[in-house]
UniProtKB/TrEMBL annotation:
It comes from Nonomuraea wenchangensis. GO terms for molecular function: acetylglucosaminyltransferase activity; D-inositol-3-phosphate glycosyltransferase activity; magnesium ion binding. InterPro entries: Glyco_trans_1, Glyco_trans_4-like_N, Mycothiol_biosynthesis_MshA. HAMAP family: MshA. Homodimer. Transmembrane segments: none annotated. Residues 217-391 form the Glycosyl transferase family domain. The gene is mshA. It comes from the Bacteria. Catalyzes the transfer of a N-acetyl-glucosamine moiety to 1D-myo-inositol 3-phosphate to produce 1D-myo-inositol 2-acetamido-2-deoxy-glucopyranoside 3-phosphate in the mycothiol biosynthesis pathway. It is an enzyme of class 2 (transferase). This is D-inositol-3-phosphate glycosyltransferase.
Amino acid sequence: MRRRRVSRVATISMHTSPLHQPGTGDAGGMNVYIVESARRLAELGVEVEIFTRATARDLPPVAELAPGVLVRHVTAGPYEEMDRADLPAQLCAFLSEVLRIEAMYDPGRYDVIHSHYWLSGQVGWLAKERWGVPLVHTMHTMAKVKNLLLAAGDKPEPQARVVGEEQVVQIADRLVANTADEAGELIDLYGAAEQRVAVVNPGVDLDVFSPASQAAARHRLGLPLGAHVLLFVGRIQPLKAPDVLLRAASRLLIEDPSLRGRLVVACVGGPSGNGLARPSILAELAVERGILDVVRLVPAVPQQELADWYRAATVTVVPSYSESFGLVALESQACGTPVAAAAVGGLRTAVRHGVSGLLLDTHDPAEWARALSRFVTEPAWRDRLADGARAHAAAFGWQATASRLVEVYSAAVAHLHKTPVAINL
């Protein structure tokens, strides 16, 4: 019987480019996931070609992200930044260009399609039918889950997205869930067939995000050596709930005014999604709460500098209303900094409660203030969590993620063609 080899993957990321800076616009953990998994897949001998929408006229048609990893810029709609809500209107244009590119090569160029987010899944659905290859899909976020956990004043995801996700779930040959909790949501909320759902934990770059001197990191960032640094990293939008940190910090200062000269509340990231409507909302809230003097608002930074922010922090705060995994929590722990996180979604996997950080079942700023005060007033306890954070993060490497993805791809191809698969390692 002929054995099939998984040697090239067509990755579809329509709405956000892997070349964009995480923490700005629509770029976030999904971008990191696509980049890092693609790099590691290439190291395993599986080539990856990433199709993404071109957002500038001067972008090259093809760019090499890493050896064995190409980014293909697809023209679909205006080059300037588009609101994600307008992208469904560009699905036909994007799909047409993807199919045109594939048609330039001999048949069978791609062994499998891996789509990310529901818009890409719609493209992958039709490409799968045209190319005769399996579709593997990763949701990253789900409308039904987000709508169950909306922040105050946040807008629910539209029904068109719900229907689009349901279609992708039904057509995909395999669904990749970041955690067992997410797998359960796919099965319970979307009716996914259990045998088609595979759990693949995301990873962290343990070379970039690693423990190092807190004092040296604070010196490089211009932070006081003796400060208590409460850190938020991510896109500034209601879903991520950075306001919870600012409200909790204001309560800390009310309860202990002596902290004012020693407290730094740092928010690293840019406005995104619904947050674009009020890009200055955190500055406004800091003024309203009387804590502007302790708040630092920092644009998104490259990974090497981001690692310094984690190392410099006393605790990283992740108060999101919904997270498919929570790479920020994992990156922080890999740097030896414990995490205070909301007990939602993948954060329940990314953080070990009482071992590498704390998980809170509330978004009440008073409860968050009480939790954060422990990191400030109990240094020995905080140091024990730091040790646990390093140990916990060490189990999550991108190499393991890529190896597991190859297994998923191989199973999808084998099921479609009913033949054994040779994994190209």
